[in-house]
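Researcher: Quick test of sequence recovery. Tokens follow.
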């Protein structure tokens, strides 16, 4: 058992983190991908949908650096428990306040776990794992986080079909509250007695090394490619192509299942070879995904498009490992937070732009996204230096 845990990079803190990621993902994915449908049910226009997506991206950016500072000050474990509690409070807002305004207010808290908590998750893996085991650690965490996504969207889609949009979503919110509260209690118990963080340097913004700045530039273009159509994909599939919510849940499971299957072999190869080309390959699939979704007419073709979407994750462990490898240990939380803050602020308006393009012609949202993906992929292939795996 000990050798098995070592092979999976499953140290105590990493194992508790994996459990938290699993439970929060299962509860949230019952309904999170259907929020655009819920907003439409509540009367939101395409521009309001775009504004919601832009707010989500803006929060993702605004929370990243403060999350890193809090992580470095409190320690990654205490910070993660705090951020989880804030997210559960957001679930309560969604359940209690059924309106477009309630969705906008609730997202302020719901984004705490994935955004404020991102530097903490990176820090836990960085603290407990070294060298190629970091790639394995990020891979295992990504797989554990995505396993519930294979099941939960299908369950959420069935709830919406059986109970209606409003009651189906509210059932999902209630399940998230219960699961989240149980998870907070477990994390608090597992992390009790963990070592306190060392003194953190104050008042200094971390400086990104040259290679990380180049990666960031390409990453911004790729996340613009992702962000323009992101909140509209569910609308395109259900309202334009006329697939059911349950079928969209199956498509989401195909996307996530493909990502899970591709993670392990990609991580093993990335741990032995150059990381750059795994990152480039990831960006290729980011570029192909919106085009494939736009062109798909029947369910089989749409399933193939979502499988391409799953392959977008193939180089993510290598990319995340590179970010952690490049950060000074004492500033790891802030470095990760600063990287994601810059990236997030740079793409915060993507969904709003996607909504504006959608009002002109829906196809523009997908095609402009693909053009940005081509630019980001080319920039990464040309300018990112070779990044050998850490040993």
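Model:
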């Amino acid at each position: 058992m000990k050798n098995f845990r070592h092979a999976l990079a499953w140290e105590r803190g990493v194992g508790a983190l994996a459990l938290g990621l699993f439970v929060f993902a299962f509860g949230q994915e019952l309904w999170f991908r259907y929020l655009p449908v819920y907003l439409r049910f509540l009367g939101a226009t395409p521009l309001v949908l775009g504004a919601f997506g832009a707010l989500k991206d803006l929060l993702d950016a605004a929370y990243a650096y403060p999350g890193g500072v809090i992580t470095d000050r409190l320690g990654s474990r205490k910070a993660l428990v705090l951020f989880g509690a804030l997210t559960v409070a957001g679930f309560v807002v969604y359940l209690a306040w059924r309106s477009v305004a309630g969705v906008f207010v609730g997202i302020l808290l719901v984004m705490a776990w994935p955004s404020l908590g991102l530097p903490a998750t990176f820090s836990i893996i960085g603290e407990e794992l070294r060298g190629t085991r970091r790639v394995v650690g990020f891979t295992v965490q990504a797989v554990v986080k995505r396993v519930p996504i294979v099941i939960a969207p299908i369950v959420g889609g069935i709830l919406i079909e059986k109970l209606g949009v409003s009651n189906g979503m509210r059932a999902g919110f209630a399940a998230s509250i219960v699961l989240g509260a149980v998870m907070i209690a477990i994390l608090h118990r597992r992390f009790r007695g963990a070592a306190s963080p060392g003194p953190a340097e104050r008042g200094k913004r971390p400086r990104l090394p040259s290679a990380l700045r180049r990666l960031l530039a390409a990453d911004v273009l790729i996340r613009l490619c992702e962000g323009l159509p992101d909140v509209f994909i569910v609308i395109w599939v259900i309202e334009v192509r006329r697939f059911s919510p349950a079928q969209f849940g199956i498509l989401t499971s195909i996307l996530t299942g493909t990502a899970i299957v591709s993670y392990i072999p990609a991580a093993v190869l990335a741990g032995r070879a150059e990381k750059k080309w795994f990152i480039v390959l990831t960006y290729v699939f980011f570029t192909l995904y919106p085009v494939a979704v736009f062109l798909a007419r029947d369910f089989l073709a749409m399933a193939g498009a979502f499988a391409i979407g799953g392959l977008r994750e193939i180089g993510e462990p290598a990319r995340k490992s590179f970010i952690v490898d490049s950060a000074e240990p004492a500033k790891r939380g802030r470095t990760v937070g600063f990287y994601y803050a810059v990236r997030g602020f740079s793409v915060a308006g993507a969904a709003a732009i996607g909504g504006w393009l959608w009002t002109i012609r829906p196809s523009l949202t997908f095609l402009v996204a693909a053009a940005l993906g081509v630019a980001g992929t080319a920039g990464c292939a040309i300018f990112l230096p070779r990044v050998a795996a850490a040993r």
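DSSP finds 19 helices and no strands in the chain.
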